[in-house]
Amino acid sequence: MYILNKDIRALQCTKCTMNKTEHKKHNDQSLLMIFISLFIIAGVANPPGSFMNDESEKGIINKLNECTTGLASGFATPDSRPLLWKNRDVGGSQEFHYVDDGRIPFISITYTNDTDDYYGGINEAGFAVENSNSYNLERGPGSNGWGGDDDDGEIHYLALATCRTVDDFEALMDSTNEDGRTLRSNYGTIDAFGGAAMFEAGGYSYTRYDAIEAEGGFIVRSNYSYSGNLNNRDNYGGSRHDRALEQFQRGWSESNLTPKFLFQCVVRNLCSEDCNPYPLPFDGYYGNYGYGRIPNSSVVCRSTTAGVIVAQGVAEDEDPRNAILWSMCGNPYGTIALPLWVRAGSVPPEFDSNLGSRIDDRSDDLRFWASSEGSGVDTWKLVNPQGTGLWDYTFALEDWVFEKTAQFVNSPRFDYNRLEAFQNSIACQISDSLDAWEPKYVTTEIFEPEIARDGVRINWRVTDFYRDHSPRGYNLYRSAEPFRNGESGELLAYVEELEFTDTEPLAGSAFYRVEGVY
Q1: Are strands 83-89 and 196-201 parallel, antiparallel or unpaired?
Q2: Torsion-angle region of residue 60: left (phi > 0), alpha (psi -120 to 50) or beta?
Q3: Model confidence at 254: pLDDT above 90
Q4: 191: helix, coil or strand?
């Protein structure tokens, strides 16, 4: 077994590339068992819960709350409507609330049952705000008028309830400079009057960056600020920033910087500093991860992403009631974007109920099925050549949502009084569709082969249950080459037991794969 483990490490590339090692075929049956073991063990070499490939400081930072954000002025978008985006990477379940406390009504994302703090949303005046933590700005006080905890939740609440313009938010920043802010943040803002700006707010000062002055008319931030010390930017989400910025530039150059583009090309992006897995599914190995798996601790779409907002503001002189908060409640691996309007006067029960968010709960089920910290995300579960992956399903649903919403708001019979019914209906339909989805199969790569007189005996155990129930049966495939290109190989049999004997094994090397059928 020691020799097998050593060979596995020698066969796998240290970067995100295909395993190019060529295997010589022999007629020795003992080599047959070794080849099977190599393929099988390589698929499970990285147990859940381990953290590898990160330097110590990066590992520490990656466990902190890390959000990736961006904004675009109306000059950068094809419809002249500004955009404000945030991937919210935190622990804990999420909800979206409609808030009307007598000031300006708004909708925002927050933790389940938290009515004191909000973390990104849009108000009735068309003003929107979000933030990401910044780790390279001056520190603030240990406490202020809001207490000793992080104060970004209170700042969001106050801004959404009182600000109508980006300049109003700057006045809010001025008012908090003296007592100081306990959390250093990059605050992104847009309004209904052409304003779009990022505020890099340290403990006692801030720097404002207007999108109209930026190349392309857009701004991206992760967990460092341009106005701070940039020596350690790579440890503060540098690769996430660079990948998101690259995608913003692409969307802008193609005149396609839209909410749909952001959700499907930025929000869910899986590129890391040294691994570009596209086109998906990833056809190769990264480090000690299993085939098709990639690390997701430093990508834009992390396993810890708990929710997403894309505020689509209005063009100048347009009614601010037309602003939409495109919302993902839960992890992007297992949910889709849905529209919310402040003018609706509520959010659908799927986003906020006495039992929490139904959509968020379902996204957790799907996220845990597709990915986990330490063992990465299985890209073959997201997308596959057969079109049966999770994202094959949810992207089609999301396309339908955008099309349906465009038809609704552009209809000659459009009525603001129908907003609540529309957003509730579409949220219910999508929730039902997400609940109904099940994988076609799950690949099992843990084998215990045995060379016997009557052939090759293969035993396996299933470690990847879906919804806590085991498969109804198993398809067993065989190939003379490794399963690296999405092909299933030769179907030997469908069995209901956890074992099979290949009575006519191939001469030389052979590879086997089991797919659990639900």
Answers
A1: unpaired
A2: alpha
A3: yes
A4: coil
Write out pLDDT tens, residues 474-493: 888 888 877 765 566 788 89
Give the DSSP letter string of 258-284: SHHHIIIIIIT---BTTB--PSSSP-S
Tokens representing 191 are 């309004």
Indicate if the alpha-carbon torsion angle 90, 94, 98, 100 is positive or negative. negative
Phi/psi of residue 209, nearest 5 degrees = -125, 115
pTM over 0.85, yes/no: no
pLDDT above 90: percentage of residues in the chain: 66
What is the average pLDDT value for the chain, to the nearest integer? 85
CA 292 – CA 18 distance, rounded (Å): 10
User: Which neighbouring-strand residues pair with 110?
Assistant: 95
Contact 71, 169 (CB under 8 A): no
How far from 33 is each of 39, 258, 345, 374, CA to CA, in Å?
10, 53, 65, 29
Whole-number Å distance between alpha carbons of 111 and 89: 12
Strand pairing category for 120-123 and 128-133:
antiparallel
Which two tokens mark 182?
Answer: 């306990």
For the sheet containing 499-502, what is the strand order?
447-452, 455-460, 499-502
Give the pLDDT of residue 443.
57
Paired tokens of 249: 């530039």
The whole-number pLDDT of residue 26 equals: 31
